[in-house]
Amino acid sequence: MTKVYPKVVIPTSVSSDQQRFSSETSTAGRNHDPVVLTVWKKSLLFSCDGFTVFDNNGNLVFRVDNYAAGNKSEVVLMDANGRSLLTIRRKRASITDNWLVYNGETTVNHRFSVTKRVNLLNAKVIAHVSTTGSPNNNNKKGVAYEIEGSYARRCCVVYDDKRRCVAEIKRKEAVGGVALGGDVFRLVVQPELGSTVAMALVVVLDQMFGGVSRRF
To answer: H-helix or E-strand containing 27?
Structure first.
């Protein structure tokens, strides 16, 4: 079996990017270098579905273990030690597929929202991210980021309001000539966004498009 990474070392702490859309305090962020993460669509727990995320050195960074634990309309993104970073919840009674993201385990005063985009005139855009305070998540002025591409193909780009690429989802290259498939992919994050927020976007995209076999 091809290993995703040769080791799992739990760090003592992981930045949570709790207050705003910004880079984590890290060497990569200070040098304006992107953070490259390997995302494995598999939980560390035998009885759960979810995600396990490694940094470029093979260290465990993020976990999602609660997919199979009942309510799939709420997902918690955790750090390597199991500390809740962001709670991701589907918005109730919403016409569109809309997800709200909260700090920690709170579900009051969401930090930002992600809405599935259905627009036949612009099929490239699959979702947009709105910050709190916008009067309407469908109002273009309230959109902080747009996500284009195909999550099913693991080929997505997150653009900010100035059309700068701040994150990318890419298929992971073959290791030793063995293709890892769609369950293992790369998440490349620019310091302007931060890896915690970027991973939350991956979780939302998986909820929106994870069971879709189309080009989205």
So the answer is: helix 27-30
